[in-house]
Amino acid sequence: MLKLAGQKGYLESGERKLEEGKLKHLESKRFSKVEQGRYDIEDKTMRKLERMGTTGTGQTRPFPEKAEYEPKGRILDPKEAFRVLSWKFHGKGPGKKQAEKHAAKVVKREKLKKMNSMDTPLGTLNKQLKKQEQLQAPYLVLSGRGDGGQPLQKE
């Protein structure tokens, strides 16, 4: 019976025990040998690139200039340009409130550029200058009454 069990592989022989005493199943299947001697980080990166198959010395695509490119929109200041670049890089954008805030700020800035720096939004200075020319005086009476005691008329 023991002979039959040994033939079928149920019993271990004495010789086999000595050979398999190394615990092969615990040995690492994949391992790398660390090179002794000089160890340089550049060598490490080059070996890694060679393993991956890209050493960076292959053909590169030419960079053609954009055809039929027309810049549109407004010129960004450095802070805005960096913010837009950062949004593109990270694949995100501003939130809804932040976008509204930014749009309002841009509209306000454009209004300030269009507005005459010498006058108010209601054009008060122009009205005063016209009235001064009409009265032919180097001054304006702001009391609300004219020379003859009558109120000033709106024109």
Automatic annotation (TrEMBL):
* Keywords from the named record: Nucleus
| Annotated signal sequence range | none
A single GO cellular-component term on record: nucleus
Question: Superkingdom of the source?
Answer: Eukaryota
Matching entries from InterPro entries are given as: SNU66/SART1
Q: Which residues form a coiled coil?
A: none
Q: Where is this region: Disordered?
A: 45-67
Where is this chain's protein located in or outside the cell?
A: Nucleus
Of which family is this protein a member?
Answer: Belongs to the SNU66/SART1 family.
Q: What name appears for this protein in its UniProt entry?
A: U4/U6.U5 tri-snRNP-associated protein 1
